[in-house]
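Checklist before submission:
- one chain only
- standard amino acids only
- sequence pasted in full

Submission:
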Amino acid sequence: MRKTTWIVIGVLVGFFSILSSAFIVMIFFRRRLSVGALATNGDSLVLYKHRDLRRATKNFSQKLEEGAFGSIFEGMLPNSIAIVVKELKSTNRGEKQFCAEVGTMGVIQQINLIRMRGFCANNSRRLLVYDYMPNGSLQSLLLPKNPIMLDYMPNSSLLVGTARVLAYLHDDCSDCIIHCNVKPENILLDSEYSPKLADFGLANLLGRHHSRVLTTMRGTMGYLAPEWFSGEAITPKANMFSYGMLLIEVMLGRRNRDVNKGQDLFALLDCRFEGEVDEDELSRACKVACWCIQEDEKDRLTMKQVVQILDGVLDIDVPPVPQFLQRLI
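Returned file contents:
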């Protein structure tokens, strides 16, 4: 009986030892696979686990921004690639924004688009993973006391790069993509101040013949085209209006809402550039902005035309004064 008891105990101890070893090996390889997924550098999107993103962001301790959509956290992948993780609020709108961003960013690539590395859909949690942009957004450069001196030439990479990516979305994708929220906060800047268009939560994919009509207002006040308010069909020309407003802000070096009625706009431009910009280039940029914010969308330029004009390969006539500027004057 004693020998039998010891034999049974030995078998059980051996069995549990083998089981424990197998469990430890499984945990080890799961962690290696997890790290491998986090370190993926390919073009395809990665489906991240929540615990991996929690580890990459140090338990979501470094919050960069918080808004109506949710929160943005800074993080680091195991291969020392800096990322940001956008956690969307668990609402119906947040779910739609999540689907719109993943559905759009997962199928398009362009040098002036922010790179999405992957996403996480864990129970009610919805997280998006993007490359970290060290110089923030264009919004920060429009602050009056910002000490950074950028090349604000109207044909600089900042403006042409933004125009190129919008032209790509309008004309070179299988479906026309209307961003619907072009504004300084959504123009991010990399280490060399090259623009990266971000935030596709409001984007809408249309067929090439624009058979679908957008009925729900989307975007930010101050950049919305008149057709959003009149109930007319929304086309890529709505983005043109937003781009024109953004172009004016870059040339003025301030937000449009900070320009008072009766101010001499050209004096503001002269103060901004301090005589260091070519008059022809400045004139082209002013004309582009004015054509883009025309009240009637049929009078606005296309984004391809904007790229050609800012590159100096296409001439443009003097536009009629837009109603927006008439109100200021």
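Reviewer check: Residues 2 and 8 are 10 Å apart (CA to CA).
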